[in-house]
Amino acid sequence: MSGRRILVLLLIGLPALAQESGLKQAENPKESRTAYLRRIFEKDRASYGDACRAVLSLVKSEHSDAAHAAIVGELSGSGVVLADWGLQESSLLTKGTLAYMVCRALGIQGGVTTRLFGLNRRYALRECIYLRLMSRGTTDEYVTGRELIDVITNATVHKEQGNTDSQHK
């Protein structure tokens, strides 16, 4: 190829080369679990969709590539998320929402107040902080990708061992 043709391909992009050579690009390539976790880890703000996928993997002990609507439907059916939240996949994730999802996924009953008044985001966050599943914060504080992975890791250890103490990990 001439230098001019290479420059045009770089400017236009590789799809032109794929069309010219008769190659088809994959429409929806599957993302490996490692690539998915790295992408989440590097996010400044995790989304509700990220949390749903992560909590479902906690519940089922396997990674799912299903559509967001299917994931939310499955979580809603098991009571992990509430159908009336009305959150979009791209909505920013708050600590209260994540705490509620984790408590419901792990079957955490909570203390006296939670048993009397029911689980809500505020009491779920308090319970997750008490159990050392999450770091301190407010229910409306946004969650970073790294925090999401830390919470899911702690929740997985809690699910397997019943605690999150570092001496038991």
Number of domain units: 2
Q: Structural class, please?
A: mainly alpha
Q: Indicate the proportion of strand residues.
A: under 5%
- Main β-sheet description: none
Order of helices and strands: HHHHHHHHH
- Poorly predicted parts: 1-28
Number of helical segments? 9
Fraction of residues in H or I helices:
55-70%
Distance between the ends: 57 Å
Radius of gyration: 21 Å
Give the overall shape: globular
Mean pLDDT: 77
In short:
This protein is an all-alpha fold. It contains nine helices and no strands. The radius of gyration is 21 Å and the shape is globular.
Write up this protein:
There is one protein chain. The chain is mainly α. The protein has two domains: 1-30, no CATH class; 32-168, no CATH class. 56% of the residues lie in helices and 0% in strands. It is globular.
